[in-house]
Amino acid sequence: MDNFFQHKARKRFGQNFLVDDNIIERIVRAIGPSETDRLIEIGPGQGAITALLLQRCPSLTAVELDRDLIPMLQFKFRDYPEFEIIEQDALKLDFGALAEEKPLRIVGNLPYNISTPLLFHLLTFRGKIEDMHFMLQKEVVDRLGATPGTKAYGRLSVMVQYHCRVQGLFPVPPQAFRPAPKVESAIVRLVPHPNPPYPATDEALLERIVNVAFQQRRKTLRNALKPLYPELDASKLPVDAGRRPETLSVKEFVDLANYCATLKT
Ligand code: SAM
């Protein structure tokens, strides 16, 4: 019957389907789903991870953009009456509305072409998310967990680490997928902090400062901040203005943003 639903992987939807059962099991073990979870899978594809998730959590909700995959998923999982598929772009989905009673546990082998905007979109719902487990390009997982002063450290590292605990779990080789992607992949766990360890008084300002800082990686902090604060007295900054922005820790970015929040622009 599966042949009836022959599906050709679509590049524009970032479709690389997992075919390695050991890897799929390892991912599901890392997630550790339980029956009472409010589990959401982004991009179920042909249901490779979905099948194992459903065995442990039959009320799973999946979000899939490719409408051609929906009949196959509905057929394949017809014995799970609580399984729900939302045919939508996860980038536009109001995840908060799915967390009626419980915070969400979100999982997905994400389409790599949208992973960064999707992570930023999901961060806006962080108060309603218990945890997230994603397959991403390994390079993105490295960026998520990167430490100051390294090449991988950037806007994504600072903003995700500000909001979440980041735990890289294990790498996944290209052969685990069909078609095989050109890059290495890895699994990451993100757990939103109930409260950020170093709270910013104005999170939007923190984000703006981090953005300008990393647009100007080679400049000193003093010069990088000029577009935002042309009149800045650099001697008053809580961190040395001669440093490169990429050497600042998350806490130092927060200190900087909290100082800037006291300035007039
Ligand atoms: N989970 C399956 C697996 O592991 O074999 C498929 C993973 S594949 C890398 C990514 C999946 O996300 C595809 O099914 C694709 O159609 C879906 N997708 C792509 N863009 C999406 C979007 N914006 N919103 C929701 N799903 C999307």
From TrEMBL:
For this UniProt record, give its keywords in alphabetical order, as a comma-separated list: Cytoplasm, Methyltransferase, RNA-binding, rRNA processing, S-adenosyl-L-methionine, Transferase
UniProt binding sites for S-adenosyl-L-methionine: 16, 18, 43, 64, 89, 109
According to the record, the segments passing through the membrane are none
Stretches assigned to the Ribosomal RNA adenine methylase transferase N-terminal domain: 23-194
**Which Pfam families does the annotation name?**
RrnaAD
Reaction(s) this enzyme catalyzes, per UniProt:
adenosine(1518)/adenosine(1519) in 16S rRNA + 4 S-adenosyl-L-methionine = N(6)-dimethyladenosine(1518)/N(6)-dimethyladenosine(1519) in 16S rRNA + 4 S-adenosyl-L-homocysteine + 4 H(+)
Supply one GO CC term from the record.
cytosol
Molecular function GO terms recorded: 16S rRNA (adenine(1518)-N(6)/adenine(1519)-N(6))-dimethyltransferase activity; RNA binding
Record-listed E.C. numbers: 2.1.1.182
Task: Report the top EC class in one word.
Answer: transferase
The record's subcellular location field reads:
Cytoplasm
Matching HAMAP family: 16SrRNA_methyltr_A (MF_00607)
What family does the database annotate? Belongs to the class I-like SAM-binding methyltransferase superfamily. rRNA adenine N(6)-methyltransferase family. RsmA subfamily.
Q: What does this protein do?
A: Specifically dimethylates two adjacent adenosines (A1518 and A1519) in the loop of a conserved hairpin near the 3'-end of 16S rRNA in the 30S particle. May play a critical role in biogenesis of 30S subunits.
Q: Please identify the protein, giving its name as recorded.
A: Ribosomal RNA small subunit methyltransferase A
What gene makes this protein? rsmA
